[in-house]
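Appendix B. Chain record.
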Amino acid sequence: MLTKAKLLRMPAKKYMDSDQLEYFQSQLVDQKQEAISEIEDARERLRIPPECKDEADRASFEVDSQLYLRIVDRKSKLVKKIDKALRRIKSGEYGYCLETGEPIGLERLIIRPTAEFCADIKFINDDQERHFAE
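C-alpha cells predicted for this chain:
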C-alpha cells in the first residue's frame, strides 16, 4: 500500500495509475465511513434529548442541537462529494479537472481527495462566487 511520501515521490508518468487510484479510493472510503459515523452520532444525540431542569439547561440543549444539525448537514454534503469522487475513480476521470481536463495534482488530492477542479480553476470559481455574492 502506498503512503503519502511514496505517492509524492512517484514519477509524473504514473499519475493516476492503479496504485494511486487504489490509494485515493481507500482514503475516500475511510473518510466516508468516518463521516457516516459522525452523522449517526449526531443524530443519536438529537434523538435523545437530556432532561432539562431549567432554562439554562434548555438553552444549552438548543445550542448543542444547532451544532449537531450543522454537523449532519456538512457531513451529509461530504458523503455526497465522496460518492461522486468514487464514481470518478470507477469512470477513470478521477484526478483530472472537470473543467480543463488537466491533472489536479497529487498534493491537492492528498489534502482534499474530493477535489473536482485544479487549483487555478477553483480559485477562479471561488473568486467569481465572491464577486457575485457582493
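Further analysis of this model is presented in Appendix C.
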